[in-house]
Amino acid sequence: MNGPQSQIPKRSPRILVVDDNEDNASLMAQLLESRGYNVRVTHNADGAEREIQAHAPDLILLDIIMPGKSGYDLCRELKANPHTRLIPLVMITGLTDREDKIRGIEAGADDFLNKPIFPEELFARANSLLKLKEFTDELENAEDVLCTLGLSVEARDPYTEGHCERLARLASGLGRHLGLDDDSQVALRRGGFLHDLGKITVPDEVLKKGANLTPAEWEIMKQHPITGELICRPLKSLRQVLPIIRNHHEHWNGSGYPDGLKGEQIPLLARILQVVDVYDALTTERPYKPALSHEEATRTMRQEAEDGLWDPNLVSEFLGVITKARAA
User: Fold this and answer.
1) What residues contact 30, with CB distance under 8 A and at least 6 apart?
2) b/e per residue, 263-280, with b = 16+ CB within 10 A?
3) How far, in whole angstroms, is CA 253 from its chain's centroid?
4) What domains lie within the chain, and their CATH numbers?
5) Structure confidence by residue, pLDDT tens digits, 207-233
6) Tens digit of pLDDT for each residue in 245-277?
7) Exposed (0-12), middle (13-18) or buried (19+): which is 205, by Cβ within 10 Å?
């Protein structure tokens, strides 16, 4: 067939204009629509928050001085929220004071436009930041593919159904309980899906055997943290996840693999994931063992921590959290 191949039409970028001056907002909307952008307009921070929740924009043009919540405050909130902080944001201002721009930078603004708006400058700013957003989206898509691969590893064993989702939820929840920052909590959630990604290269007959591996089979299994790290290493956005993938099978007493790390040499995020991983493994039925009750798993984990396998403080923190949640 010599005809042109069909292509999926590209979506027009969505731009949200937030300006309490209706004339200014209307002018910007008309200019941007003339270039093919999909433009939504609102006149205050409350309206902007509703629009962002309903139709996540690719770019926000935000006036600084508005009734109610200011552009500074809205910008600061959006940049502090993991779900919106990667949306490029341009502050529109009639202010020329250097301190006002510094406030905008501190709030997290990606760029500025001064009033009156010059069309070519508006188009240049929008085009540049939308390209950046496109790159960010491609990066997130790559991460989604890897997480899907992680789930495909889980799917090879019917006894581990839901394991990744449970680990992602429990690990990020423990991180939140410990007061870790948002980036660490996100890394723990991603780690829940990606920690065993390297098992994609482990043959089924080894992966599903579970117990009583031969020395040769055990050597194959012990390579999966290194393989998983190598798969994810090209994505810089996963740099906080790499230690989780590589080191979640290390032991507090140094008897784990692949690096034989000991105590606090083991990265904190890896220690957190391994604690919730152990709990989930103990309380889940496998072909070679029955599921333990919460009380039995608690006793087992405390004994194993005493024997030097797990960080005893993290075990106590996690069991406290899970016991409290079960009683609620």
Assistant:
1) none
2) eeebbbbbbbbbbbbbbb
3) 30
4) 14-136 (3.40.50.2300), 156-327 (1.10.3210.10)
5) 877 678 899 999 999 999 999 999 888
6) 999 999 999 999 999 999 999 999 999 999 999
7) exposed
